[in-house]
Structure formats: C-alpha cells, structure tokens
Amino acid sequence: MGDAPGAAAAQPLFFVLFAGITSPLVFPRSIGAAEAQARSAVDERPVVYRRAGCTYCLRLRFRLGRGARRLHWVHIRRDPAVAAALRAVNDGAETVPTVTVQGRPHVNPDPHWVRTQVSPPT
C-alpha cells in the first residue's frame, strides 16, 4: 500500500517517455523516396528507409546522434511503391532500417558503420 503513490507517479512519467521515444519528432523529417534518391545522387549521403515504431530504427537514430540529420530518411508507410521496392531488395520482407549507400542496400547495418558513411574522409 505504501508503493501506490510512487507507482502512480511513475506510470505517467513512463508513458510520457515512451511517447517521446516513439514519436516521429525523434527522427529528422521524412522525405519521399524519389526526392531522397535524387538528393543522395548529388550529395552521396545514405538514404535510410524506416517505419514508425521500429526499435531497430530508433536504435540507429539514437546511436547516430546529430549525424542522423545528415542522412535522408524515408518513411516506408507513406508510399506503397517504397515498401514494394524494399521487399524487392530484402527477399520479400520490409526489413527496416535499410540503408542505401551509393545504390547498394544494407539491411539493419551497424550504426558505427553508418556513421562512417556520413563522416567526411580524413
């Protein structure tokens, strides 16, 4: 009975944190696949295909930190053609995150490797 006030206070905090983590505001603004590919062709930055609620996408986003803003993010549920293209390169699965670097898809890559793809060469 003594734990009830603590649990009552912790529960709203948990839901606020959960909402913040799963919010689309955590990710950089998503753009269309065609626009992302066109931009990537010019600036050679990777394109990241993601889906809302994907824990691996969240992991990638948080591990990239500020560097995540340098990638082109595409939400696959906003365009059925994108989901179909993703299935074509992932053996029929809509596996996310899929990161395309210079036209080559990489399924659920290591965040450290992705960071090296957006870092300027030294």
Give a description of the structure.
The protein has 122 residues and is of the alpha+beta class. It has one domain (4-118): 3-Layer(aba) Sandwich (Glutaredoxin). Helices cover 48% and strands 13% of the residues. It contains five helices and four strands; from the N terminus they run ααβαβαββα. It has helices spanning 4-22, 33-43, 55-64, 80-89, 111-118, and strands spanning 47-50, 72-75, 98-101, 104-107. The chain has a four-stranded mixed sheet. A hairpin with a 2-residue loop joins β3 and β4 (104-107). It is globular and about 55 Å long.
List keywords for this structure.
Glutaredoxin, 4-stranded mixed β-sheet, 122 residues, alpha+beta, 48% helix
Write the layout of secondary structure elements.
Layout: H1 4-22, H2 33-43, E1 47-50, H3 55-64, E2 72-75, H4 80-89, E3 98-101, E4 104-107, H5 111-118
Parallel strand pairs: 1-2
Antiparallel strand pairs: 1-3, 3-4
Helix pairs in contact: 3-5
What is the name of the CATH topology?
Answer: Glutaredoxin
Indicate the percent of residues in helices: 40-55%
Classify the beta-strand content into a percent band.
5-15%
The count of β-strands is 4
Number of domains: 1
Strand count, sense and barrel status of the largest sheet are: 4 strands, mixed
Assembly state: single chain
Unreliable sequence segments: none
Number of helices: 5
Give the radius of gyration. Answer: 17 Å
Which CATH architecture would you pick? 3-Layer(aba) Sandwich
H-E string: HHEHEHEEH
Strand line-up across the major sheet: 2-1-3-4
Spell out the CATH superfamily: Glutaredoxin
Mean pLDDT: 83
Structural category is alpha+beta
Overall 3D form = globular
